[in-house]
């Protein structure tokens, strides 16, 4: 980075506060990149009480493309990132934490992916995980890996799957603005959701960095993260539902064939299972196989701070959504796609239904599933802390995806159905059973992996593994 460039290819933005013990390692990794002669590094010192400045000035004597900015008071990370972005001149931007480490080819791989894919706005790779500070990418005690699935905005609405070392086009800030500085912990998640609503992203199946799982990091701060995740989900899931209802072709959903049961649609519609049996099938199937297919399971539940109460509230909220939506559809002849519109309408009204009113609202019910859900919910109905809301329910987008796919399939094959006991209504309940079963099965495995199986989970396990009959196709 000793030569002066007309315009750098990549601008690396770094925020530092009381990180003197890490800043040298950080700069070593950045100046060790294979495209270092096409990079600039912008370090924003958020009024640190330690001596990062001296180390940075030392590196500046050798590397002229390091910029140092110190604020006159302490600022948050997203304020610091915005300062760095405004001071940058690179075609692409990437953030780097002082306590993470990089593969030497990381920025070469990411920038080349953007160069080769002009329609892609942001790219990201996989990351190794360590629980020990001051390790290097080449030599560390690995405790896991963020191996992300292919990019999907629907999945991004459910959990943050972009990873800690992304790279994006600097031009996007002219269109959608900068990071929201009101966020303390998850302003990057809000920005990815805002960006993904208008632009495409791409997952690169290459490990680009090493992420330190620090217990005290901002992203793992429970109070801030719970509030901010809820805020993000509510805002962007509502916008997504509105676009879906408006028929935006960019948001036509497809069955995700990477699911645990790859042919979920065919399995759901053609099996003779009841909805209750479907719940058990997916629970047991997920319990047996989920680690093979859901390698980011621990990250997902960690970042969402899932508890048994939270999971039960999610189940109840989704069940209420089905009840209200079917009531909104009315009686008589049924067009399957009307159910999707009814779901969007119900979410938009943010309906909350007390448990005692559930049956009144639902014009048709799968009795076995109804009894089973009520049994699962027993003991949680008085939980006023979580409530039975689906406005920030991570199960809703997945459920909507499969219901719409079912509706499209049935419209192509049958178009309309007479009467209330039609196959589409039953497919809604079976899909509901499958989604709930998979979610509960995944959470049981997560709890088991951390030795956190509570009495509530033991009760649920016994309930779900009692097999009175066998599902058959």
CATH superfamily of the largest domain: Spore Coat Polysaccharide Biosynthesis Protein SpsA, Chain A
Number of helices: 18
Q: What is the 3D form?
A: elongated
In total, the number of domains comes to: 2
Entry keywords:
Spore Coat Polysaccharide Biosynthesis Protein SpsA, Chain A; elongated; 9 strands; 473 residues; alpha/beta; 18 helices
Question: What report would you give on this structure?
Answer:
With 473 residues, the protein is of the alpha/beta class. The protein folds into two domains: 224 residues, Alpha-Beta Complex (Spore Coat Polysaccharide Biosynthesis Protein SpsA, Chain A); 213 residues, no CATH class. It is 49% helix and 12% strand. The chain has 18 helices and nine strands. Helix 2 links the parallel strand 2 and strand 3. Helix 7 packs parallel to helix 8, helix 12 packs across helix 13 and helix 13 runs antiparallel to helix 16. The radius of gyration is 24 Å and the shape is elongated.
Summary of the model, kept short:
This protein is α/β, with parallel strands linked by helices.
Describe how the helices and strands are arranged.
Blueprint: E1 10-16, H1 20-31, E2 39-45, H2 52-60, E3 66-70, H3 77-87, E4 92-95, E5 101-102, H4 106-116, E6 120-130, E7 142-146, H5 153-158, E8 167-169, H6 172-176, H7 187-196, E9 200-212, H8 222-245, H9 264-270, H10 275-293, H11 297-304, H12 308-329, H13 336-349, H14 358-361, H15 367-377, H16 395-413, H17 423-449, H18 455-465
Parallel strand pairs: 1-2, 1-4, 2-3, 6-9
Antiparallel strand pairs: 4-8, 5-9, 6-7, 6-8
Helix pairs in contact: 1-2, 7-8, 8-13, 10-17, 12-13, 12-17, 13-16, 16-17
């Amino acid at each position: 980075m000793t030569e002066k460039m007309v315009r750098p290819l990549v601008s690396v933005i770094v925020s530092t506060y009381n990180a003197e013990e890490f800043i040298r390692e950080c700069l070593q990794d950045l100046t060790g990149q294979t495209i270092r002669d096409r990079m600039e590094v912008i370090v924003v010192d958020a009024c640190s009480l330690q001596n990062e400045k001296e180390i940075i000035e030392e590196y500046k004597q050798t590397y002229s493309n390091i910029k140092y900015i110190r604020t006159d008071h302490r600022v948050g990370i997203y304020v610091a990132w915005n300062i760095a972005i405004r001071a940058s001149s690179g075609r692409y931007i990437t953030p780097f934490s002082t306590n993470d480490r990089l593969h030497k080819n990381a920025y070469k791989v990411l920038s080349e992916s953007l160069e080769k894919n002009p329609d892609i706005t942001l790219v990201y790779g996989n990351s190794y995980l360590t629980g020990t500070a001051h390790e290097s990418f080449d030599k560390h005690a690995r405790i896991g890996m963020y191996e992300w699935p292919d990019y999907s905005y629907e999945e991004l609405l459910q959990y943050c799957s972009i990873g800690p070392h992304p790279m994006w086009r600097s031009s996007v800030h002219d269109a959608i603005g900068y990071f929201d500085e009101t966020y303390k912990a998850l302003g990057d998640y809000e920005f990815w959701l805002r960006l993904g609503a208008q632009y495409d992203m791409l997952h690169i199946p290459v490990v680009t960095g090493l992420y330190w799982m620090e217990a005290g990091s901002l992203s793992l701060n429970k109070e801030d993260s719970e509030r901010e995740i809820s805020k993000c989900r509510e805002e962007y899931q509502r916008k997504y539902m509105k676009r879906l209802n408006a028929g935006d072709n960019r948001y036509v959903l497809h069955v995700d064939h990477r699911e645990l049961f790859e042919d979920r649609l065919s399995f759901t519609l053609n099996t003779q299972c009841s909805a209750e049996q479907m719940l058990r099938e997916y629970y047991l199937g997920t319990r047996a196989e989920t680690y093979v297919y859901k390698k980011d399971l621990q990250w997902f539940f960690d970042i969402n701070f899932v508890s048994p109460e939270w999971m039960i509230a999610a189940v109840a909220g989704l069940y209420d959504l089905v009840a209200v939506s079917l009531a909104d559809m009315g009686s008589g002849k049924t067009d399957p796609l009307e159910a999707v519109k009814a779901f969007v309408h119900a979410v938009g009204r943010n309906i909350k239904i007390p448990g005692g009113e559930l049956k009144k609202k639902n014009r048709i019910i799968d009795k076995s599933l109804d009894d089973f859900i009520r049994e699962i919910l027993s003991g949680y109905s008085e939980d006023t802390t979580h409530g039975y809301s689906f406005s920030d329910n991570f199960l809703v987008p997945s459920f909507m995806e499969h219901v719409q796919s079912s509706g499209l399939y049935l419209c192509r094959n049958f178009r309309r159905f007479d009467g209330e006991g039609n196959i589409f209504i039953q497919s809604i309940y079976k899909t509901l059973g499958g989604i709930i079963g998979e979610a509960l099965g995944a959470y049981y495995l997560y709890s088991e992996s951390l030795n956190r199986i509570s009495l509530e989970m033991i009760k649920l396990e016994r309930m779900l593994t009692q097999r009175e009959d066998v599902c058959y196709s």
